[in-house]
């Protein structure tokens, strides 16, 4: 990511998405877009971010600035390849290190559930870079699921990653009846009121490790940790907090937080 006082941009493979401050002149936007393409021959399209990520589906709105009129991305990271549409699906290159770090923590023959999986970056990086037995990839966005299925095929992981689409609240009830439990649950959740920890604890067993993501101000980290403890108590689960770490800034003094925990009973 390149930052300047009045503009910043993120590169998604062959596409750059620019975020301008309000009131930035249109002519200067085009000029900056062409400058990006001139300095980086791999970038074929430049878009302007014109809205925030919205709702549970985390859709973003962009406007065309320069280059090819294309919003489909080809992106590579951690030995994996991904295709997705900028406007209809969510993908964060900033979480590349997070995905690799969690993949490195997965042990041989573990079964992993990834909630809020999107186009399956966590699921695929884990499957490709660990000795996990099986990765269940869950997402509610139908468009994201189409790309997730494509990405599973592109990375030759049809035998290791299973795409389970739909609302995790309903699916967790179904899995509970089937007595399905996981060794690892990864929760790269968007900004939602519901923590979905109830569903995670429903699908956990003794020894399950949960990687829970939330958002907060820097000074409110302990409040998130306490929320996790309260949800565990409600679910009648004993847990141990293994690690608490910032997983990137979302705004000045605001962060994405990762809480790693282990279910003890």
**At the fourth CATH level, what is the homologous superfamily of the largest domain?**
Vaccinia Virus protein VP39
Order of helices and strands: EEEHEEEEHEHEHEHEHEHEE
In the predicted model, the low-confidence regions spanning at least 5 consecutive residues are 1-5
Query: What proportion strand?
Result: 25-35%
Overall 3D geometry? globular
Main sheet: strand order: 10-9-8-11-12-14-13
Structural class: alpha/beta
Major sheet, described briefly?
7 strands, mixed
Topology-level CATH name of the largest domain = Rossmann fold
CATH architecture of the largest domain: 3-Layer(aba) Sandwich
What count of structural domains?
2
Give me the oligomer status.
single chain
The CATH class of the largest domain is Alpha Beta
Overall pLDDT metric? 92
Could you give the count of β-strands? Answer: 14
First-last Cα distance: 42 Å
Helix % is 25-40%
What is the secondary structure topology, with strand pairs?
Layout: E1 2-3, E2 7-12, E3 15-20, H1 26-39, E4 45-49, E5 62-67, E6 72-77, E7 80-85, H2 96-105, E8 111-114, H3 121-129, E9 134-139, H4 142-154, E10 161-165, H5 168-177, E11 184-187, H6 197-202, E12 209-217, H7 221-234, E13 239-251, E14 254-263
Parallel strand pairs: 3-4, 8-9, 8-11, 9-10, 11-12
Antiparallel strand pairs: 1-2, 2-3, 4-5, 6-7, 12-14, 13-14
